Amino acid sequence: MIDISQMTLEQLESTIESCALCPLHSGRNHAVPGEGPARADIMFIGEGPGFHEDRQGRPFVGAAGKFLEELLANISMTREQVYIANVIKCRAPGNRDPQPEELTACKPYLDRQIEIIQPKVIVTLGRFSMYRYFPGQSISKIHGQPRQAGNVLVVPMFHPAAALHQPKWRPLIEADFQKLPQLVAKMEQSGPIEPEPKAQQLSLF
Description:
The radius of gyration is 16 Å and the shape is globular. 43% of the residues lie in helices and 11% in strands. The protein has one domain (23-194): Uracil-DNA glycosylase-like domain (Uracil-DNA Glycosylase, subunit E), CATH 3.40.470. A hairpin with a 2-residue loop joins β4 and β5. The protein starts with 8 loop residues before the first helix and ends with a helix. It has a five-stranded mixed β-sheet, with helices on both faces. It is of the alpha/beta class.
């Protein structure tokens, strides 16, 4: 693999677009590196591109993306203010779960994106981005509970698609989103904040 440690965000995205590190590249229309400013207070990390994302080369442009934009609008934000990425950068056949070798191949790209963007808050959307910070946990138990990870506050949330498929999750993800402005403000004013007691307990396992 080429050295990406000094790449700019633009260089990194270009590298991802031509990546052939795992078999997923052979079936893609477009890789989906991510989208947003090189500095963003909030970074969203989803699972992987779907049908529409693969066609357009952009993250979250289908129904789940529209819902994400609604959620952002509810906290007076737009998608242009945040960075949106996925744990894998190419669509998996039939939108199946990412395989370990695919996650491994894409991990350095996501690591470098986080390093460049330096978000104050990372929001994980769905299981596979959650597992990066909360291995083995259940999203239904820990959603909305922030956890410190270095200089970043990580907030696990339901994937917007889950709320579309199961309406019972919609109020939960809407409520979790309402916390984001306050979390960003706390990180700006006082630096890293202490995790909530329940999240702190999770970090012991």
